[in-house]
Amino acid sequence: MTKTGMIDFRGVNKWFGALNVLRDITLSVEPREVVVVCGPSGSGKSTLIRCINGLETIRDGDLVVDGQRLGDPATNMTRLRTEIGFVFQSFNLYPHKTALENVTLAPIHVRKIPRTEAEQAGRELLAKVGLADKVDAYPAQLSGGQQQRVAIARCLGMRPKIMLFDEPTSALDPEMISEVLDVMVAVAEEGMTMMVVTHEMGFARKVAQRAVFMDAGAIVESGTPEEFFSAPKTDRSRAFLSKILRH
Amino acid sequence: MLENFSFRTIVEYLPLFGQGLVTTVWLSLISFAGALAVGIVLSAMNLQRGWLFRVPAKAYIDAVRATPLLAQLYFLYFGLPRLGFVLPELVVGILALSLNSGAYVAEIIRAGILSIPRGQVEAGVASGMTYVQRMRLVILPQAFKVTIPPLLGQAIVLVKDSALLSLISVAELTRAGQLLASDRFMPAEGFITIAAFYLLLYYCLKGLAALSGRWLGLQPARSST
């Protein structure tokens, strides 16, 4: 209770109707820590990270993010969200905006950064994710992997303290997965606090300090990625890993 | 069969038809602007979560869509003066068309906004935008594109509906046809001529719809350099 992480779940519960989608979640993520969340579909992993920026609300327990308790009247959720980047499985780029405009929209209108400055930063970010030549392209003209890299640049444009990734490579063709993971590794290596819902073991082993396994809304197992992927402790995680590793 | 058909009379009445056409065009334009205003307000009310605004908006839209325009027009024209509001015919006519068409426009706008995927809202929320910023920067620009073609369809309906204003003696296009029909007893000439003018207006709006469709369709494909 004394120790406060960047993201702190304390006995969090959430229901969708009668379904207990998050069961008594207690989890603390330290600054600069990278935590990978995995588990079978419907286990609550997406819901877990969507609670952190308030895309979902919790029923009971405490969720403290960057020192602010969610649901507290004193917490300005809109303000807090500017500190939290969120990368969606389906990218959710703005189709009517170019890559650069996607990256600069929130910095200009939410952060109130002058346009020229935001555009300069936006170009640099797009170059960083390997898309310097796609600055003026619309999302429809980009491949899935390119769109997801723009989406990551869009989050970075807000200079967030935390980045959340909700199955960022699940909607991608296999040959595009690594280009996105490479960018995520680079972000992690710069010391970003990250929670990543993914089954990409290579990524987890490379940059994550911790892997968390969820099943039926509860955290079943938690350990270093090395321990978890090579020697899972519970039957459920063993069964799950045997399924995703079979091929 | 056509020896009784008098082109000469039509030509003789052309200035009258011309005036009627001009009146139909500008009163339709004003009415459509009014319909857009009514529609925007109604759709905004209708999209609220709380019932306070949503229920009255829904009730209004249902009432308009369930009753004939002619009944609405007569209510405004004959009913309002009895309630103490005496307005010129033209104002009553424009009011009726705006209020009527506004209900349909509201549904078009609402459908356009709801057609934008949930993920777009979430992307805006996640980047810390307020409701107003999300609407202005993310949702409405996209919804706008989707709504243009059906809105022009509604404009076509409105132009045709404006013919009903002839019944409250607004000197628009249909009224011009009626005058020729009754003055000279030439209903064939009168009504075929106005039909031709309505067709002309229809093609103008249809052309505009096609143009806007092509323009909107082309926009996202602007080539990257």
UniProtKB/TrEMBL annotation, chain B:
Superkingdom to which the source organism belongs: Bacteria
Transmembrane regions listed in the UniProt entry: 25-47, 59-78, 90-109, 137-159, 185-205
Coiled coil: none
Gene Ontology cellular-component annotations: ATP-binding cassette (ABC) transporter complex
InterPro entries (alphabetical): AA_ABC_transptr_permease_3TM, ArtM/GltK/GlnP/TcyL/YhdX-like, MetI-like, MetI-like_sf
Gene3D superfamilies: MetI-like
Main location: membrane
Record membrane topology: Multi-pass membrane protein
UniProt KW keywords: Amino-acid transport, Cell membrane, Membrane, Transmembrane, Transmembrane helix, Transport
One example of a Gene Ontology biological process annotation: amino acid transport
MF terms in GO: transmembrane transporter activity
Domain spans labelled ABC transmembrane type-1: 21-210
Keyword match Cell cycle: no
Cellular localisation: Cell inner membrane; Cell membrane
Annotated function: Part of the binding-protein-dependent transport system for glutamine; probably responsible for the translocation of the substrate across the membrane.
PANTHER family: GLUTAMINE TRANSPORT SYSTEM PERMEASE PROTEIN GLNP, MEMBRANE COMPONENT OF AMINO ACID ABC TRANSPORTER
Family: Belongs to the binding-protein-dependent transport system permease family. HisMQ subfamily.
Protein name: Amino acid ABC transporter permease
Organism, scientific name: Mesorhizobium helmanticense
